[in-house]
């Protein structure tokens, strides 16, 4: 049997979206496609394992049943993809799929509680009953094609399934416009942030605005790849229910069992708490929060019982520092380090933000300011920056890196290449000035700039132009003028010969 490649399954999964194109908006149908991929995965794994156990114990059906009951996910009778596919021509298909998902959730309640509550295949968003049945039948038929046979005995490692899920999320983000930032951070930015915080075995890692959990999983993958270890724990919180569900499915598809991802508003109701009802602390905190969120919860922040805003209350129409202050408050005292994506206004805006910024710098928490190219993030063309904070530093320096001019240009989206990422991380670790690229600032330097972190104040990228010899330019101009006059005289002579002149 020819082994399936990541490209094969990505192509097949993306082709399944053709059913919806032109009928339903991508921001809506992404949830249907991704949920169906998850259901297909659960069903194919169940079928594969049942076949194997039956072959190993042909005369012991009770043993086979006991083994199946110990599976990572239990699939109730009648709720599998194959069961739904067999009845695809019968009316009421949307209701049948919803009932199957509900049965799966009930059978796996500790893992899948509420995961399917925001998705309804019986929704009128898919059109009238006849149209809805046709769309869902086509979707089942797309996923029933041999290319999307997801049995482990065929596709091998779970990485391929998780990779397909991540691929679909990234493709949806590319077509989702402004809403894209709600659920996806570009892969290379996630890679960069993971490299900057350098997660280690044993770390507790958190993303308080986790979206589809792509950033969390980049940190996890770095530990697995660099240290050959799965000794870590992932934590997250996500405010949007459907996006939280994507995160849960995404984590399970990547075999990330050791996670706790909560649904709720991180600022108004942080859910990652200790038994003493205090904020839980983490070794690593990473996030790409919504840029300058207007309604971020200033009312509840005024009386925050966790003390997150003791350095100041962010402006009521810009929530950037609300997320930063929350993240700072959840760092472990010595090992805590964090990376957060911010719009450039965070670096220099005055008022309450300026006072908060000064407090963070005076406490020696800020470690790096890294300027990124424009058009990196889905849904916005503006350039962003990454701020790195550490709870424990050996000096008061801050490394400023202007990486805004080094990228691979694209029509709609720019990207950072591996070489770009390597240069940023190497410069961050070296903590030394690089001409027109990086500057290691002291506290005195920053004080001298009134705690303004605007990168051009520290990294001089001015390119001096060659001096112009004005006399040489004038002489060249006179020569050209004489040459032009001679040509005009010759042209006039030719015209006279042809009878066009006096």
Automatic annotation (TrEMBL):
Q: Which residues form the DNA methylase adenine-specific domain?
A: 159-466
Q: Which reaction does it catalyse?
A: a 2'-deoxyadenosine in DNA + S-adenosyl-L-methionine = an N(6)-methyl-2'-deoxyadenosine in DNA + S-adenosyl-L-homocysteine + H(+)
| PROSITE patterns found in the cross-reference section | N6_MTASE
Q: Which Pfam families match?
A: HsdM_N, N6_Mtase
Q: A Gene Ontology molecular-function term?
A: DNA binding
Can you give the residue ranges of the N6 adenine-specific DNA methyltransferase N-terminal domain? 10-143
Key words, A-Z: Coiled coil, Methyltransferase, Restriction system, S-adenosyl-L-methionine, Transferase
**Enzyme Commission designation:** 2.1.1.72
Show the coiled coil region(s).
Answer: 470-497
Q: Into which family does the record put it?
A: Belongs to the N(4)/N(6)-methyltransferase family.
Output this protein's name.
site-specific DNA-methyltransferase (adenine-specific)
Q: Which organism is it from?
A: Roseinatronobacter thiooxidans
């Amino acid at each position: 049997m020819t082994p399936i490649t990541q490209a094969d399954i990505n192509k097949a999964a993306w082709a399944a979206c053709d059913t919806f194109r032109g009928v339903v908006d991508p921001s809506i149908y992404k949830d249907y496609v991704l949920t169906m991929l998850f259901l297909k995965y659960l069903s194919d794994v169940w079928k594969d394992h049942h076949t194997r156990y039956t072959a190993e114990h042909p005369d012991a059906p009770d043993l086979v049943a006991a083994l199946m009951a110990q599976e990572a996910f239990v699939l109730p009778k009648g709720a599998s993809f194959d069961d739904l596919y067999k009845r695809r021509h019968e009316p009421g298909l949307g209701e049948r799929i919803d009932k199957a998902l509900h049965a799966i959730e009930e059978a796996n309640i500790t893992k899948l509680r509420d995961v399917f509550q925001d998705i309804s295949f019986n929704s009128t968003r898919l059109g009238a009953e006849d149209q809805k049945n046709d769309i869902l039948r086509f979707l089942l038929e797309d996923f029933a094609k041999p290319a999307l046979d997801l049995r482990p005995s065929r596709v091998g490692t779970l990485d391929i399934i998780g990779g397909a899920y991540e691929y679909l999320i990234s493709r949806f983000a590319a077509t989702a416009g402004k809403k894209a930032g709600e659920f996806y951070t570009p892969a290379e930015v996630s890679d960069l942030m993971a490299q900057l915080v350098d997660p280690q075995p044993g770390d507790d890692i958190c993303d308080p605005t986790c979206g589809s959990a792509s950033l969390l999983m980049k940190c996890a993958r770095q530990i697995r790849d660099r240290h050959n270890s799965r000794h870590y724990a992932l934590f997250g919180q996500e405010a949007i229910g459907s996006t939280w569900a994507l995160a849960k499915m995404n984590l399970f598809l990547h075999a990330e069992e050791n996670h706790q991802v909560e649904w709720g508003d991180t600022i108004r109701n942080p859910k990652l708490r200790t038994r003493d009802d205090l904020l839980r602390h983490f070794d690593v905190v990473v996030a790409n929060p919504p840029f300058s969120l207007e309604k971020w919860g200033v009312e509840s922040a005024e009386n925050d019982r966790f003390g997150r805003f003791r350095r100041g209350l962010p402006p009521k129409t810009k929530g950037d520092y609300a997320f930063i202050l929350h993240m700072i408050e959840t760092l472990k005292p010595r090992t805590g380090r964090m990376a957060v994506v911010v719009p450039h206004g965070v670096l220099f805006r005055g008022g309450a933000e300026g006072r908060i910024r000064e407090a963070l710098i005076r406490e020696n928490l800020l470690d790096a300011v890294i300027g990124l190219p424009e058009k990196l993030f889905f849904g916005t063309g503006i350039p962003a920056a990454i701020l790195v904070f550490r709870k424990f530093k050996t000096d008061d320096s801050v490394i400023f890196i202007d990486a805004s001019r080094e990228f691979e240009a694209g029509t709609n989206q720019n990207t950072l290449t591996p070489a770009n990422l390597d240069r940023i991380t190497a410069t961050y670790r070296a903590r030394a000035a690089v001409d027109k690229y990086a500057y290691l600032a002291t506290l005195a330097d920053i004080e001298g700039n009134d705690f303004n972190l605007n990168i051009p104040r520290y990294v001089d990228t001015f390119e001096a132009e060659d001096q112009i010899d004005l006399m040489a330019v004038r002489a060249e101009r006179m020569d050209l003028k004489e040459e032009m006059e001679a040509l005009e005289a010759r042209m006039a002579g030719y015209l006279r010969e042809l009878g066009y002149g006096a």
